[in-house]
Give the backbone structure.
Amino acid sequence: MDATENTLVLTDDAVLRMLSAARERAQQLHQPQCIVIVDASGVTLGQLRMRGARFLSLASAEAKARTAASIGAETKTIPEEVRLLIAAATGGAVTGLTGGLPIRIAGVLVGGIGVGSGTGEQDASVARAALSVIGADI
């Protein structure tokens, strides 16, 4: 029986490139954003609150990133009818708001990204730009 396993993890360079690509996409949309990147266990690896982004959106971006990493799927896939119950049960740690995406490399879940402060569509677009720059599965 093996006591260890090899796993993929995001590098510091990948996190910085993701933050930069997300910031660039947000600038193209003229929508300042809060961007949070977590590893597969939900630990924050990097975050950015762009000047002009709503400061409370940092909390929702973090919840989006952690939710996406936890469920291995987009946050918007949480069924509408249970979103409020799950949010209440977890003290807001889990959310069904659009803008949280899992980060997968060659099918392996390595983390999550959450973006907040724009519309759901803007948030998701910024998150997808970050995934694209590192060749993550989209």
Q: What stands out?
A: The radius of gyration is 14 Å. The helical segments are 12-28, 57-71, 80-89, 120-133. The longest strand covers residues 108-116.
